[in-house]
Amino acid sequence: MEEKLMKALHEVLDPEYPVSVVDLGLVRGVAYEAGKAKVRLTFTSLGCPCTEIIKEDIRNRLLQVEGVQEVEIEEVFEPWSAENISPKGRLILLQLGVT
Length: 99
Description:
The protein has helices at 2-9, 51-62, 87-95; strands at residues 27-33, 36-41, 70-75. By secondary structure, it is an alpha+beta fold. It has a single domain, classed as Fe-S cluster assembly (FSCA) (GMP Synthetase, Chain A, domain 3, 2-Layer Sandwich), CATH 3.30.300.130. A 3-stranded mixed β-sheet has the order 1-2-3, covered by helices on one side. β2 (36-41), α2 and β3 (70-75) form a beta-alpha-beta unit. The protein is globular.
């Protein structure tokens, strides 16, 4: 089930760039237990203005996964850096002119 959750999260795009929250390195873990999807999520900065939009998009997408009745998002403020971006995410950003 965790694989299905991650696949779904690859469809959730950052509000500022067309890169998934997974490829940006924001998703730090997923779990599933008794109908509840649990997501560990960090942000690029403590003052990120898009936190609520990202959390709502994650919640809406995961509730579409068969078997998920509830979504719990745990905000973890683990240090984030550009090193957390996947190769796919880096390619998309480079194509957009973001370095």
